[in-house]
Design brief:
This protein has 17 helices and 13 strands. The chain is an alpha/beta fold.
């Protein structure tokens, strides 16, 4: 089996990149095709044979891959995959739009159909500050992008979704069924020592500082309740968030993968207010034996067990989150039980399930099956 990996872009070290690193670990000799990439963005991809497109020069010049999105569909279609009989794309945007060879099988690990094109258009326009005079042009572009997205979905033989929510979206938008395989948790999170509840002093939040992650909601509640809150991450909203923060909020910046498990393990709970398709942060927290207080929507409904490994709040409002925090203060959670629950999402389990689905796709859609 001559396999190639494909990704939308490799510019940040988020959940999609962690899943991509696991795919690379399964097939370490497979080349990794992508539109643009930032050097050494993920430590587990440093040895990968990453092959970028002609957009790489512009990315180095401009420093932002988002600006290049209008050019990406055509450039993705230019990627030459001749000689590969299996294509495995990891995609939440344009990666699945590659044109596979006629005799190749294309499996897509789908993080979500493009949310900003299909279901969150106005929110993204607001979040990224698109001027009103330019919005008509952007919306016209997004309409064309939706057409291309629908057409390119037909180039995928097998869809694998990262959550039940993503699977439902794939069926609703593309009219396709999919197998659900949640994102992987690295072994390092299971190796960190469990810390007794009485030794945990602060709540923790981890992620990129972008509007939809709702760090502003966490800071508002921490200020109101005088709760100790540690925030890990970075992004363009950092200045605004720091200006909001009261004396009980601490910013740690970006931390290394090696340091992150101990931060999870020492937290009273991990707060997760975002509506995510899957969400790797709640999984990593549970692997460290730490309960999660999450918005009760999206992928966390697949991975957090109410009352056993965490609890949910209903709405992205201060009142809803504060009610959950007060309820949490009356509850007891077993760290060992939380970790045991998370083992089903380990990287080893992820690799086994991905390999199995790729092999099934090859049997069903491969050269012999098509002839």
């Amino acid at each position: 089996m001559n396999l190639a990996l494909v990704a939308d872009w490799i510019t940040t070290a988020g959940g999609a990149e962690r899943a991509l690193a696991e795919l690379h670990a399964i097939w370490p000799s497979a080349p990794l095709f992508t539109t643009v990439a930032r050097k050494n963005v993920h430590e587990n991809l440093r040895a990968a044979d990453i092959r970028t497109t002609r957009l790489q020069f512009l990315y180095r010049l401009l420093g932002k891959h988002q600006i290049l999105l209008p050019l990406m569909p055509r450039v993705v279609e230019e990627i030459d995959l001749r000689g590969y009989d299996v294509i495995l794309s990891s995609s939440h945007a344009v990666g699945k739009g590659i044109i596979p060879p006629s005799n190749a099988v294309h499996v897509c690990y789908c993080h979500t159909p493009m949310r900003y094109a299909w279901e969150m258009e106005n929110q993204y326009l607001d979040d990224f500050g698109i001027p009103k005079f330019f919005r008509k042009t952007v919306k016209r572009y997004l309409m064309n992008l939706r057409r291309w997205d629908l057409a390119s979905a037909k180039r995928v033989d097998t869809f694998i979704a990262n959550s039940l929510e993503t699977a439902a979206r794939i069926e609703r938008i593309y009219g396709r069924t999919s197998v659900v395989i949640p994102p992987p948790v690295h072994d390092r999170f299971f190796r960190t020592p469990l810390i007794p509840t009485m030794e945990r002093s602060s709540y923790l939040a981890v992620g990129r500082f972008v509007p939809y992650k709702r760090f502003d909601l966490l800071i508002e509640c921490a200020n109101a309740l005088q709760l100790p809150l540690t925030i890990v991450g970075g992004g363009y909203e950092e200045k605004r968030l720091r200006a909001m923060a009261g004396p009980t909020v601490t910013f740690r910046g970006r931390v290394s993968d090696d340091d992150l498990p101990s931060l999870y393990a020492s937290a009273k709970a991990v707060l997760f207010p975002a509506h995510e398709d899957a969400g790797i942060v709640p999984l990593e927290a549970q692997a460290c034996g730490t309960p999660v207080i999450a918005l009760g929507k999206g992928g966390t409904k697949d991975t957090v067990v109410e009352g056993k490994t965490g609890l949910f709040f209903d709405a992205q409002t201060a009142a809803s989150l504060q009610a959950a925090l007060k309820k949490f203060s009356t509850m007891h959670f077993d760290s060992a039980e939380i970790r045991e629950h998370a083992r089903q999402f380990s990287s080893g389990k992820f690799r086994e399930r991905i390999k199995d689905e790729v092999e099934k796709a090859v049997v069903r859609y491969g050269r012999e099956a098509r002839s």
